[in-house]
Amino acid sequence: MSKHKLTQLKALEAESIHIIREVVAEFRNPVMLYSVGKDSSVLVHLARKAFYPAPLPFPLLHVDTGFKFKEMYDFRDAFCEEIGADLIVRRNEDAIGKGMNPKEFGVARCCGALKTSGLLDALEEGGYDAAFGGARRDEEKSRAKERVFSMRDEFGQWDPKSQRPELWSIYNGRIHDGESVRVFPISNWTEMDIWSYIRDEKIPIVPLYFAKERPMIERGAMLIPYYEENKDQYLEGEEPTMVMSRFRTLGCSPCTGAVRSDATNMDEIVIEAAASRRSERETRIIDHGSNSMEDKKKEGYF
Amino acid sequence: MTKYNFELTKEIELLRLVTVGSVDDGKSTLIGRLLIDTKGAFEDQLMAVRKKKGTTQISSAAEIDLAMLTDGLSAEREQGITIDVAYRYFATPKRKFIMADCPGHEQYTRNMVTGSSTANAAIILIDARHGVLAQTKRHTHILGLLGIPHLIVAVNKMDLVDYDQGKFEAIREEMQAYCAKQGIKDLICTPMSALTGDMVTIRGDKMAWYEGNTLLETLESLSVLDDIDEKPFRMAVQLVNRPQTADLPDYRGFMGTIASGTVKVGDAISVVPSGLSSTVKEIVTFDGNLEEAFAPQSITLTLNDNIDISRGDMLVHTGESTSGEKLLSANVCWIGDEPLEKRKKYIIKHTTRQVKAVVDEVNFKRDIHSLEKEAASELAMNEIGQVTFKLQQPLNCDAYTENRGTGSFIVIDSFTNNTVGAGMVI
User: Fold this and answer.
1) Which of A55, A181, B170, B414 gets the highest tally of CB atoms within 10 A of its CB?
2) Directed axis angle between helix A8-26 and helix A38-51, to 10°?
3) Domain range enclosing B41
4) Contact predicate A36/A134, CB 8 Å
């Protein structure tokens, strides 16, 4: 038996660092998509490990919808300042100016305008030929089929039927002008791995992930966080009540549900994640419309 | 319910698995069974694929449409077939498993190669009613070529042959004979019913004649690592780290993933192909410098001498170099739409180095039924053969059977940029 062994988290870490370095070596102008969530926190941490003692060799790009939680903006600015990251924030100002919102226009249209178009415009504007994302294959069944290096055509779109075979740890980064690649270094991590790694490595995350008494709208089985400034986004008759709760994933505040929880620290979150019988994407309204994740990905959603 | 021991999460190992089989072998059912029984699928994901709308609790695999759980693409659901490799994750208190679920459809063999290349173990599904098929042999041959350390033959649907031991033994003998011809030694055969769970996660009471482990017991007990850390040290340089900051004006770190072996501070190191040498000054990581590092860690090395090293170079222990060859012979699985042809030019990516290559000779292709060599001038999609490439610059490779990391390469079509071949150095 071999005397040198890596634990599974350290094996995943080594694989992710290898992928991140390959992209920086083979692409002209990479960028790391930064959504401020827990997976982004892990992704940025891995990138810092990959290039230590040098600073990050690429900027972080936050495609903002204007609907993120206030705690996310505060965390984003403090975190990027602390690690000395070059943060680029891009918003689809055109759609935001026209008052785009999920309640009036529907979740699919709102996501399409603020996230997908916002992202495609930002990537084109920056001339990036590679964009890192923190998507994981265990999140959703079309993501389970995506490669680590995911090719996009000139329009940023994904063709699931003609994906390049991906062999060993040899990644083919050759593209034609105008094409680009989305790269998912944490493809093989599960939600449980993410939480365990955040705990072990003491990675900072947005405080919304920890349980606290928070004002919530109870809509069916969902807990929707209540914010005074979003009150037009709630349905008639909906009133907030205080609920001990936390978030398993973070997206836009009108479309991200919370879960009832007493987990106030990382150890408790890891235990709760292990015992959970429901997937984290269940709290994301975007996944449950007629427009599936696969359709959104084909259009350019990451 | 499987208990997850949190203190152990730091200790558990990773086993990369691949499942292959022909259409209708019950692969989706087996995967669904493993996911349900190890709690690797969430309730809301199961409820979304339940057969009857009114069902409020899922307790057995029979209540859900398991193929719907794994066939993630709309084209797959429309055509009722699995097109692409899907990756699935589950864990037991002993191990975490990454499972590449590979389609059995003949035209999608390339995805099987994709899913298998990194696997430590393979599960080959066989329908007990139909026995060993041509497709089974093709897949087994590829798995053998790819050097998967452990092959597990899952003889499924035993419930449909009245749990007949004779049927199982016949299949086992045929597979053992086939594998022996190819030099595959580590073969485990298990009878099972993925539908009922017998011999998958539970023993059940129908196959008392079988004395081996259940599938899950086998997966938990296979050895994960080969002796990769005991092989010669190999690290292909991915990047040279030169921060050029005020604190680190002259710092030069060589970044890479250790493909095999170990490296210690003070070790004498040579650069391949230049032959320049130095000694290891530091093994740098974000978590502090190390005294020793081993495969497959991703590290940064600094050296005591200022020598020329760039991406694509390989660091080895002095005296343990590989020879650089301009003629490269390899077993090749062809996965491109256009056939591999003599005199055609390609790009080969080996570790972190890319070189131009031309096909010098197709030495032979392999008939996957008889395993006999056949003369050939090209390899079509899904064909396997031995090819000699002439390289623009020499590559320093090890034999694939000795070293998966430095013995493998991909063939890239220089016009389309697609990955068209998987190469294993002889």
Assistant:
1) A181
2) 70
3) 6-221
4) no
| A25-A165-B366 Cα angle (round to 5) | 125
Domains in chain A: ranges and CATH: 8-192+291-299 (3.40.50.620), 206-288 (no CATH)
Q: Would you say residue B4 has pLDDT above 90? A: no
Q: Which residues of A touch B223 (CB under 8 A)?
A: 1
Residue B257 CA to residue B236 CA, distance in Å, equals: 7
Task: For residue B43, give every residue at least 6 positions away whose Cβ sits within 8 Å of its Cβ, in sequence order, or none.
Answer: A277, A278, B58
Question: Which B residues 252-291 touch A at CB under 8 Å?
Answer: 253, 255-257, 262, 284-287
Asked if B137 and B178 sit in the same domain, the reply is yes
pLDDT, tens only, B324-364: 889 999 999 999 999 999 999 999 999 999 999 999 999 99
* Confidence check: pLDDT of B201 > 70: yes
**What number is the ipTM of this complex?**
0.91
Co-location of B282 and B362 in the same domain: no
Name the minimum distance, in Å, from the CA of A272 to any CA of chain B.
11
DSSP 8-state secondary structure symbol assigned to residue A114: I
| Residue of B35, B117, B225, B419 best to disrupt the A interface, most CBs of A under 10 A | B419
Helix axes A70-83, A38-51, angle to 10 degrees: 10
Judge whether residue A179 has pLDDT over 70.
yes
Whether the per-residue pLDDT at B56 is higher than 90: the answer is no
Query: In this predicted structure, what is the pLDDT of residue B73?
Result: 64
Nearest CA in chain A to B8: A7
Are residues B238 and A172, on separate chains, in Cβ contact within 8 Å? Answer: no
A292 vs B contacts (CB less than 8 Å)? 74
CA distance B343 to B106: 28
pLDDT in tens, B226-246: 678 889 999 999 999 998 888
**Nearest CB to A25 within list B113, B238, B243:** B238
